[in-house]
Amino acid sequence: MAACKSAGEAVRDRFHLPSIPSPSGERLRRALLALSQPVSQFVSSAASPSLPSPTPKRFSSLASLRAPLPLPAVLSRSPPSASSSAAPLPVLFRGLSSKMAAAPAAPQSRGRRDKLLSIEEAIQARWARENPYEVDAPLDAANAEKKKYFCSFPYPYMNGKLHLGHGFTLCRAEFQARFQRMQGKNILWPLGLHCTGMPILACADKLKREIAMRKAEQDCGENGEKREHVESAENNSAEQQNGEEDAKKKKSKVAAKTGNAKTQWEIMLGMGIPEAEIAAFADAQHWLRYFPPLAKRDVTRMGFGIDWRRSFVTTDVNPFYDAFIRWQFNTLMKRGKLKFGMRATILSRREKQACADHDRASGEGVGPQEYTVVKLFLQGEKMREAPVPQHQPLVQLLEAVKAYGAKKVSLVAATLRPETMYGQTNCYVLPEGKYGLYLAFTNPKKSLDKAEEGDGGAQAAESEEEFETLMTREEALSTCTEVFICSERSALNMAYQGWLPMQAAEDPDALPVPHCLGTVDGMNLIGLPLTAPNATYPTIYALPMLTISMNKGTGVVMSVPSDAPDDYMALQDIKNKPDFFKDRYGVLPEWVGPFEPVAIIDIPDLGALPAVTLCKEKKVASQKDTQKLQEIKEEVYKKGFYDGVLLVGPCAGQKVADAKTVIRDQLIERKEALRYFEPEKPVVARSGDECVVAFMHQWYLDYGEEKWRETVEAYINSEQFQTFSPQVLHQFKHVVGWLREWACSRSYGLGTYLPWTKDSSRPVLIESLSDSTIYMAYYAIAHLLQGNDMYGQAKGPLGIAVEQLTDEVFDYVFAQTDDLPKGSTIPAEHLKRMRNEFEYWYPLDLRVSGKDLIFNHLTFSLYSHAAIWPHRPDLWPRAFVCNGHIMVDAQKMSKSLGNFISIEDGIKEFTADAMRVALADAGDTTDDANFQRETANGTIMRLYLLEQFANEAVSGALPLRTGRYSDADRLFLNEIVTCTQEAKEAYEGFQYREALKKGLYEMHTRRDQYRLLCGEDHMHKDMVVTWLKTQCQTLAPIAPHICEHIWSEILKEPSLIVSSAWPTFPEHAQDPVLHRQFLLLLASVEDFRRTKDKAVQMLSGGKKKGQQPRPADQAAPALTHAVVYVAKEYPPLQQQVLTLLQKAPIHKGEDGAWCAGKEYMDIVKNDEGINALDKNAKKEAMAFASFQMRDELKAYGRSALDLRLPFDELNLLQSHQRYLQASLGLTEIVFLPSDEAHPKDDSPNRKLAKPGKPSIFFYVG
């Protein structure tokens, strides 16, 4: 029967709620649902309560426990009918867990949202007038010792408006800044705006090309006719009004050439740029003027407490910042951290410059992967002796170049294991793959070995960099002495590494390509006789393999079946199915039969044929058994490299780890192999071209230098540096372990020029990830140099001109020396003022970032600080906190999915505070966070009702009592203190979801529960005011506008809440005993309710086996009376277990909850008394131990292991008799010790009572 559902089930069914995790597991969750029942004093009838009528229409959108109804509304509810035994559904209790769903839709009326927006606007205006976020370093000794907190966020890139992802990470710094301000610290929370790098200029140039093409289309069509329907950039604003039909006509050759890719014009439209203004963005400088002010506007509207005096845009547009970056790189040069040489670098072919992470559309974090490419020489004589029809296309292509002299032809195979060449039995090609025949040099035109390093590279940097070796076809045929057969992608990479000549494209917009004699299918290569360097067999053959990727390596795979399980199984498949492979791929028996695995490396425990041995042991069926093959591969490769010993060749007897490089170098010296690099994964530049690895001259930062690396590594491992996450710390250690040279120069883009190249014939820009490592130091003095102008076009309050900012001035300001700069025209007191700002605010206390920046920016920052301040680790960053990316409603945020949210649009839809709450609730780990629209919508209602409650409480509309405090008051005050302390701990640990749970959701829950405990006596005015003030203070870091409004406008506090202190209470105000009493009440009510539901079900003819259901016309008698049994102590067995558990070590986990290791299980298992028990008793003892240490310990701490409760449980329940009676819908309830029987009770219920867990018996009065 529906009416017999438990209260918890009824609530969840009605409001579609998930289960709620809680401090004491399911018990607290059920107790909270039970407490949501209105007390009997709210109804005028003494009859048994029933399920209530539907929720009033104006609250029908609330499908979450997160949105409490206005408290006064509850008092006027009409009494429920008496047709059911179940108590009324909750109307007061809303929300405990931040994991619970919020209201699924915004209120139909936008009045609540608009009211919150108007509050936010008014509060922001007040902040603007009073400037609470503008703080200078103290100049007087009295205030110089005041603690400070300096936090920052990697300045966002200004190629568009800020979006929810920016907002999420910004919030994590913002929340901490506000929290630390409430701890009495001076706060520096600035925000710069990043314009350095390639993307802005690339977009501007792309737009410029599109405009030129549009104009050309307008002037003349493909056949010379006038293009009437294509509008020029100047007339596009008129076309915008012509509707969808005209918009479709605008699709031109620009879009056609890019396939489905959007043009830059379309991208700008999608960004919300008015069409009439798009043409202006063809000038890169327009981006710098357009987007930074919008970013400042959106961040301010979001309520962030930024000191905008210190904001700046990067690049040489801001001459003060430009001078600072030049000083930084001059210093790095003096310290020997900058070098110049030929490096293997990810290159954008279109831009002809290195493509760093921030220059990429995809492939961030991807670096060059080095291979050894081995030449498998074609045996022409053998081909002529035994011609194969499928080789004819290849033969014809080679015949065409005979006139240009003999050329060595080879299939080139990329390998990571050149030391295994001795075991080659064949090579593999992809039958369906496309392979090109590329003209190649025997001696490359570029070499990493010819790199010039250090200061001597400055002369080399003056010469023009040649990325491609351009030749005509005639020149290439005459010059090249070899032909490489490989994939097109690998040929491109080899061309930019000096191995292949390139042919210039006729189309000026097209890129050059390697000289290709023609292409053949992989089928045309099967059966080719080859000479493989170092191989035991004098001739090997090319065979088919169906799993080769043409986007990895060269498309040719050498086969070493002794040590490579994939190679072995592929060879076995061909041997086991000779007829199939002959008919399908033309494979002849003599190409396969004579070839057996060759023993080349001996591995302890695996032998000399490890791949063969493990494939047989693990019963690998075929080359399609990928999981087993991968496991074998990892085992063989790892053990082979570290423990394997070579059995053949000049390095026989040596370990593989020692011999690998020696063997590779021997192959290269004999011109039988070459070093080859390609991107680890595909990398696409923002200009749209797929990147290659090029050998190019680069200024680079030598992060791999041993002493530098060891210094940074030691700091990361020290107690001075924090990440608040073991996973993040591990990532930093990993990055420092592999990070080596980093190219820091660019020829294309925006930014600051390397100082010593600025006036040269080839000025070089500093790459965007390299000039963004210590700019936090510039925040300290920016407001003194440039005032309120982020572009630095006017002098600041000190009147310093940029020409006065010499390196010597910066040396003094940034603590490189204590001597004032000689000859400086800047007054000494101004220099000291800047030095004071730096020394007060530095080091950086917190930097919050997305986790992707661990692999570059954040680690670079540590290296740069160690280089600039080598003897001052006290000036290095103190903490990096990283987070994952943001999703929207569990989906990746993207415009194509229609869920892209800009900060501007999010504020309009949800309000700033509601967005901030939803972002706090989104997640705290490095996993991707989830912004839920329904959470934001539900928060609108919650904050609106909070403001309404505050107004009613202060105005007198809400009935409140005064006078002495009751037990309920004391319990409530203790819960306020508990929530406040737990919220503080969460903020300190950067656990903002937990801080929101304790500082908002549980604060509301405790208020509603307090109201229920008070019943018709009403809440106490002092408690309500205390709760309101504390609620504002605990929530202020996350939702500052509504808290400021209530604090200042309703509570009439004299100062701003942003300047108030964190709530404080008298010492020992937090009483764990009172807290446990409170939780016991909650849990008891829920347990009692479940017991009553079962009793009602049995009276109604429930599910008991053999029981007949009660006739429909016969109502079940109402359970109106109950007796509660309370146990003073545990049964003997449980006392024995508790005594043992008290010996077990316990500690607080990462979530702040008490927990224990597995030692307690051994303590109980190994006890002689427990071992003497029978099987059932022993099982009961272990189950009890597990429950206490898993659930009860988490909720109550060490007191969960006490043999008796630290309070009188019977007295507690008796003092709240009225509340319990009303919550359970009873007319009478009595309380007895568990050793006293009640005359109406002949059940075993009283024996179930335990300390902290009373039992109950219901009966008909």
From TrEMBL:
Enzyme class: ligase
UniProtKB keywords: Aminoacyl-tRNA synthetase, ATP-binding, Ligase, Nucleotide-binding, Protein biosynthesis
Chain intervals for the UniProt region annotation (Disordered): 218-257
EC number: 6.1.1.4
Biological-process GO terms, alphabetical: leucyl-tRNA aminoacylation
One Pfam family, short name: tRNA-synt_1
Alphabetical list of InterPro entries matching this protein: aa-tRNA-synth_I_CS, aa-tRNA-synth_Ia, Leu-tRNA-synth_Ia_arc/euk, M/V/L/I-tRNA-synth_anticd-bd, Rossmann-like_a/b/a_fold, tRNAsynth_Ia_anticodon-bd, Val/Leu/Ile-tRNA-synth_edit
Biased segments, Basic and acidic residues type: 218-232
GO molecular function, one term: aminoacyl-tRNA deacylase activity
Protein name, per record: leucine--tRNA ligase
Native source organism of the sequence: Toxoplasma gondii ARI
